[in-house]
Design a protein that fits this description.
The protein is an alpha+beta fold. It has one domain: Glutamine Phosphoribosylpyrophosphate, subunit 1, domain 1 (4-Layer Sandwich), CATH 3.60.20.10. It contains four helices and 13 strands. Strands 5-6-9-10-11 form a five-stranded antiparallel beta sheet, with helices on one face. The radius of gyration is 16 Å and the shape is globular. The model has no long low-confidence stretch (mean pLDDT 87).
């Protein structure tokens, strides 16, 4: 599980995530890595997910990265909105129904779950208690300033949140950040 934040601004969109990958073995939580890539490029969009990192697809086990490479290869020319729809439809064919996704392109952010697709200016997904606490600390995100300044602010907020909340053991590692500007193709 992870925490991922998506923000839409007048200048573009930003995604931030933690980088911890955990596994549970005999009711104990182990940190496998604090350097796991959790933001992916999907055609000309950015994508982050929270939930399962490995999934069964066509009777094979894949990492989320392998799944997204396969998905991108099968949908190379879709626009952001069509990618969101196709990804939601694909959730039914995998064990990713418990995952939530954030898709970002230019100044648009979509929250994708197995039930809905919502265009939103601000979304946090991931471990339910961590998301609730993040919203409690950061109920809104100001969208004034350059996209680079806003990305730094979001990265600092999430870094502070992770450091101040060690009780969320599945969340940790350095914060990853990516953004898409209105000038991106």
């Amino acid at each position: 599980m992870t925490i991922a934040i998506g923000v839409s601004t007048g200048n573009g969109s930003i995604i931030a995530t933690d980088s911890r990958l955990t596994m549970q073995l005999k009711h104990r939580l182990f940190v496998r890595s604090d350097a796991t890539t959790k933001i992916f490029q999907l055609n000309d969009c950015l994508l982050a997910t929270a939930g399962q990192y490995n999934l069964k697809f066509n009777n094979q086990w894949l990492s989320i990265k392998e799944f997204l490479l396969n998905f991108t290869a099968r949908h190379p020319d879709l626009t952001a909105a069509n990618l969101a729809n196709s990804l939601q439809q694909e959730l039914a064919n995998t064990n990713l129904a418990s995952n939530d996704f954030i898709l970002a392109k230019n100044n648009s952010v979509w929250h994708i779950s197995d039930q809905t697709i919502t265009k939103t200016p601000y979304i946090a997904i991931g471990q339910q208690a961590a998301v609730a606490e993040f919203y409690n600390l950061y109920p809104a995100f100001t969208n004034t300033g350059t996209i680079e300044l806003l990305a730094t602010e979001l990265k600092n907020n999430l870094t502070h949140f992770i450091a101040a909340h060690p009780q969320f053991g599945k969340i940790g590692g350095p914060v990853q950040i990516a953004y898409s500007t209105n000038n991106d193709a």
